[in-house]
Amino acid sequence: MRILIYPHDLGLGGSQLNAIELGAAVQALGHGVVLFGQPGALVRHATELGLDYVEAPLPGKRPSPRVVRALAKTVRERRIEVLHGYEWPPALECLAAARLVPGTTAVCTVMSMAVAPFIPYTMPLVVGTEQIRQVETDAG
Q: Does pTM top 0.85 for this prediction?
């Protein structure tokens, strides 16, 4: 399986580090993993772990049509099957790109203490705590 991971940024932070390390672990299981995002301190760590890195364009307002186009291009070129956005801007951009490329799907991880209410209920979602999972389950 070919997977693209897209953290909200690549500066030092728990969510980003989690995304990169999980991506490297999934790659070690035999899957292809591509890291997509703005340049930051964690790019070096990701490439040292063996992840391919694709630089994202500057987004401007989020969600960004420019980023969605770049994601869709990367998905087509690298035959990505799953786009995994971390936090709400990448999640929505991954969802839009997945809708442009048949045969792809988007999933979302939110490690913040709340999930943005505009993330579609139909989008597969991973959250950081049981309490947040329960709140989101109760909300539908």
A: yes
